[in-house]
């Protein structure tokens, strides 16, 4: 007499399993997108948004500050009058900086999300978590209409960071507290 365990295992072995069918994902790859929608959605998250044509001119507000510039930031962005901090930096040095200036891998108009992948001009993840101000430059051609479109543009093996506004939480008595897990201020320059 077979044990209950053996009987169950035999039923599993004898079971007829249909062949796996491919899952068809008919995601909408496009949408209204564009600068206007992205700017509106980013602003909905309480980020500061500027549409600019000249990045160095738009960075004039950084004069007199200590700003982290990751490796690969375009030289023309490193304007005079700013103390530029470059890697390698310790956690304490990052924490004492006034802010960080980065580019991005892609931005998503539909959700107002910026995606960093740690490549040139974006730096390691800690750069955008410790300074209290993150200034991110997004070029018009980096704006994808939808999440599926953005994901197609990204390299899935890179470390991805999705940013939707300044760091905030409402966990404590449902009161919004900003700057808990990252910068209290997110400023986005959309370059046309």
Automatic annotation (TrEMBL):
Organism: Lentzea kristufekii
InterPro entries: FTHF_cligase-like_sf, LUD_dom, NagB/RpiA_transferase-like
Stretches assigned to the LUD domain: 92-191
Protein name in UniProt: LUD domain-containing protein
One Pfam family of this chain: LUD_dom
PANTHER family: LACTATE UTILIZATION PROTEIN C
SUPFAM superfamilies per the UniProt record, alphabetical: NagB/RpiA/CoA transferase-like
Gene3D superfamilies linked: NagB/RpiA/CoA transferase-like
């Amino acid at each position: 007499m077979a044990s209950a365990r053996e009987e169950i295992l035999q039923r599993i072995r004898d079971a007829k399993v249909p062949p796996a069918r491919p899952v068809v994902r008919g995601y909408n790859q496009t949408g209204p997108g564009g600068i206007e929608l992205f700017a509106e959605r980013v602003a909905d998250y309480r980020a500061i948004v500027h549409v600019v044509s000249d990045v160095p001119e738009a960075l004039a507000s950084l004069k007199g500050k200590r700003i982290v510039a990751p490796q690969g930031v375009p030289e023309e962005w490193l304007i005079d009058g700013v103390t530029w901090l470059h890697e390698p930096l310790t956690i304490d040095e990052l924490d004492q900086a006034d802010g960080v200036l980065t580019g991005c891998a892609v931005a998503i108009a539909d959700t107002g999300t910026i995606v960093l992948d740690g490549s040139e001009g974006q730096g390691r993840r800690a750069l955008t978590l410790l300074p209290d101000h993150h200034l991110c430059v997004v070029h018009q051609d980096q704006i994808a209409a939808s999440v599926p479109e953005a994901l197609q543009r990204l390299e899935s093996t890179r470390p991805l960071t999705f940013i939707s506004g300044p760091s905030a939480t409402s966990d404590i008595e449902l009161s919004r507290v900003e700057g808990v897990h990252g910068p209290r201020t997110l400023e986005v320059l959309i370059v046309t």
